[in-house]
Specification:
- The chain is mostly helical.
- It has one domain: Methane Monooxygenase Hydroxylase, Chain G, domain 1, CATH 1.20.58.
- The protein is 82% helix and 0% strand.
- It contains three helices and no strands.
- α1 packs antiparallel against α2 and α2 runs antiparallel to α3.
């Protein structure tokens, strides 16, 4: 079972708020381009959340089973995540 990182949880909550804002924009018939830009921001946030969640899960699994330098491993994973 994975322990959820507070930063990841907060990111998901912000994304939820962004979605509520998009619904509000649509109900108020805002400009399509503005809505699309907000949807793209949500998509990016979700993709980043997936990467962070996956990384956190991987770090927890390795930390529980092996003695690996977590700082160096985390730095390596950060490089991968920035590429997502």
């Amino acid at each position: 079972m994975m322990i959820c990182n507070k930063k990841i949880l907060n990111r998901i909550k912000r994304t939820k708020g962004q979605m509520a804002g998009i619904i509000d924009m649509m109900e108020k018939e805002k400009n399509c381009l503005e809505i699309v830009n907000q949807l793209k921001a949500v998509k990016s946030s979700i993709e980043k959340s997936i990467g962070l969640l996956t990384t956190e899960n991987l770090l927890q699994r390795i930390d529980n089973n092996n003695q690996i330098d977590q700082k160096q491993f985390s730095e390596a994973i950060d490089i991968i995540i920035k590429g997502i």
